[in-house]
Amino acid sequence: MSYKYAIILGNLGNTRDRFCQGYKQNPSSEEMLKLALDRMPQIQGIELVGSWDIRPDNVSDMKKRLDDAGVACASIIPDTFGNPLFGKGSLTSIDAYVRQAALDYLRQMSEVAQAMDCGIVNLWLGQDGYDYLLATDYDQERSWLTEATRALASEFPEIRYALEYKPKEPRNFSYHARMADTILAAKETGCSNVGITIDTGHSFYAGENVAEAVVLAKRAGNLLYHMHFNDNHGSWDDDMIVSSVHFTTYIELLFWLKKTGYDGWISMDQYPYREDAVDAIAESIWWVKKYEQIVADHYSEIDALIRENDAVKTSRFLRGLIYG
């Protein structure tokens, strides 16, 4: 089985940080879509960020553009992280008005997903967490988070809600921080359509072994709904080209995705601050495809090496991949 590949449309646009408020010109969503379709024939899907790329007023136009190009909407990513209203939390804000506004917005984005024939709403709740100690009722805020997620999943049972975890940023501590606590968050809803997105870079700097995270999601009841690929140096969410840093990690990851039967999207999520965005993201796709091919060609051999548990033989195999 070959995976379906996708990109997050906004990754082709402007990139900013707290030092430079714009490394590049920011094209419109329509211009970014044309760039992707013209220069990235290897993709079959596009992820759209709510409010940035997709809104109730442009759903029909965006759906026609994707349909005409023969490209699917891989996921809708609601913007609960860039709106100042949600700066102290969206679904976990201590302000009941803000919590309701967040839930209403997520309902709107779920309706947008329905209109786009998109089966996944990717929830990266980046502002839902905390910064200071002795300033947060963890139990209450986690209860609000569970209740709101349950409400969404119950109202839209045909949509799969994928909780994307990340240990920190923009908050110092995120409620969906690692695979284990995000499994708990999904399970606490009691809804069969709440699962998890793994972002490889988030997993790296969470101190996880991302392949083991895949297995945990499988053991929890096939909770892995979606995948974001990028790379980093392990201490921050650098969002670099796949394989800039890691090699063996990706081989093991692709092996366990295959072994656990993952059949979702393989989507790129990176911010090429200074590089040509299309070229950089295309490099990531070609790298993942290369790892996919390595696993396909050597699946039985890798499986046997894992069962044999001989680090030297595994090293010899990996060296053979590089040097022949």
Describe the overall structure.
By secondary structure, the chain is of the alpha/beta class. It has one domain: TIM Barrel (Alpha-Beta Barrel), CATH 3.20.20.150. About 45% of the residues lie in helices and about 15% in strands. The protein has 10 helices and 10 strands. The strands form 2 sheets. It has an 8-stranded parallel beta sheet with strand order 3-2-1-10-9-8-6-4. Strand 9, helix 8 and strand 10 form a beta-alpha-beta unit. Helix 4 packs across helix 5. It starts with a strand and ends with a helix.
Strand order of the largest sheet: 3-2-1-10-9-8-6-4
Counting helices, strands and paired strands, the structural category is alpha/beta
Query: How many domains would you count in the coordinates?
Result: 1
- State the separation between the terminal residues, measured CA to CA: 26 Å
Mean pLDDT: 97
Low-pLDDT stretches = none
Strand content: 5-15%
- What is the highest CATH level, the class? Alpha Beta
Order of helices and strands: EHEHEHEEHEEHEHHEHEHH
Binned, the helix content reads 40-55%
How many β strands by DSSP? 10
CATH architecture: Alpha-Beta Barrel
CATH topology: TIM Barrel
Largest sheet: 8 strands, parallel
Say which CATH homologous superfamily is assigned. Divalent-metal-dependent TIM barrel enzymes
**Structural shape:** globular
Radius of gyration: 20 Å
- Please tally the helical runs, counting DSSP H or I stretches of 4 or more residues: 10
